[in-house]
Amino acid sequence: MTGEPFCWKDKSIQELLAFFESWLNSTPTPQNDGFGYYQLLYDLCYHNTYALQFVEIEPWLSWTSEFTKARGEKMDGPVDPKVIEQWKEFLGEKWNEYVIPEGGYTTFNQFFSRKIKPGARPISGDDTILVAPADSLVNAINSNLTATTQLRTKYEESLNVRQLLDGSQYADVFNGGTAVSCVLLPTVYHWYHAPVGGTVVESRAVSGTSFGMNGGFYTFVNNGNFGGYKSSFGVFGIYHRGYYIIQTEKYGLVAMISVGLDDVNSVNFMPEVNNIPEKNPAKIVRKGDPLGYFAYGGSLVILLFEPGAFSGLKVDQGQQIGGMAPLK
Fold it and tell me: What pTM was estimated for this model as a whole?
């Protein structure tokens, strides 16, 4: 990967396979977190019907599934300690927030799915406060959800709640409600936690595709404001994902959908909140309790609320609304 402009025109199938082989064998670093491979793939698929079939229909869909499986095995294999040292230097003081296993991180996924030390993310005891489920970029998506149709708004957004929740019996309660997206960048902590306290009354893993954004990739990236106002969230209804329905005492139902994006897109449940009620009984959770984690790949959490429960993102003067980066 050189970072130079790349053109797929007139490239051969051998060159396409060489691209995937390079991707397969790459290990993310702070300088090359793997995002360039996604961009090149969607450069190929953008407005290209035949290329899009490569990631959406058989037999190529199964091939891409095998690729992501092999990629996951690569991430679970031994990692060069020098790579971990690069990440340690990049993270700086944040490195001290994490639980370092005895002997250090021996695989990239072990590092990627690292745990934080108790107390590293203080949780407000005020029940009226909604907390972020993950270290993420937060954007309001919609203030008038529908459960059955693709709803287009002036910001080009779409969301099919019933599809996201895989036909859940609870999907319709979010009609007219609100949604929030939380996009996890490759450099951050990748566990996700309960945004509210309550009882998990339903949870399920939903199988889906590994590569599915096509043209939506560019609006999702949105010049670094990932998941911002131009994003089309309807595409995430076809990705591998897991969801949780939490019954709160005063604020109705809250849905949390954890979406695994390109490329490994692994979504992992804590055992006690996996497949409720088929496998496990309803589970009481406290705000901030860990519910699961992502292995390597793009990651997104979507929160859904009943009408009137959460009107939007609000802060008081002087409170933090985000972090800034120095201009280069």
Answer: 0.82
